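**Archive record**
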Amino acid sequence: LDRGGASEWWCLLGALKPWADRLESKLDKSGECWMWTGAKRPNGYGVIGMPRGGVESVHRVSYEIYVGPIPDEHHIDHLCRNRGCANPAHLEPVTQAENNRRAGAARRSNQTHCKRGHQFTDDNTFLTARGGRECRECRNMRNRASRRGMRDEMGGSWTDRIDIAGVLEARFPE
C-alpha cells in the first residue's frame, strides 16, 4: 500500500496509527469470517481511509498486511464469498478473468429457479456449450415460439420459408 511514503501509518484527526492497528480496531473476529465493522461501499465491500485522502478496499489492505504484496494484474477473491470479510485465510489473489468466472459460478450455484420460476433439476436443466445452464422448459418454449413466428410470417411450415425459385433466379438470371 505505498501511498506516497505513508504506507505504514494512518492519520486520523492528527493521530498517527499503524495500518494493522487501524484495521484490527474495526474487525469483528468472533466468527470464521473477520467482519469489517467500519465504512462499507453500497456493494458490501469494506473501505478504509488512506493517509493522503481516498479509500482502499479493506480486503486488499488485510491481504497486504498479513500475507504480502498483491501480484500485479491480480484481484483479491473472497473464497468465502462474503464481501465484508477481511480474514486473510479467506482471500486469494487471482486474475480478473478467474475472479469473474468464480463470481458467475457462485451466482449460478445459488440459483435454484430460472427467471420464469421453473426449478433447476437434473431433468429440467440444460448445460450450454459456454458452461452455463438453462431451464429446458424455457428453452422449449422459446424454440416453439420461434417456429410459430416463422410459420406465421411465411404462411406455412417453418421449413417452407426458403424461396428456392427466388434464390435460383437471383443467382442464375436468364
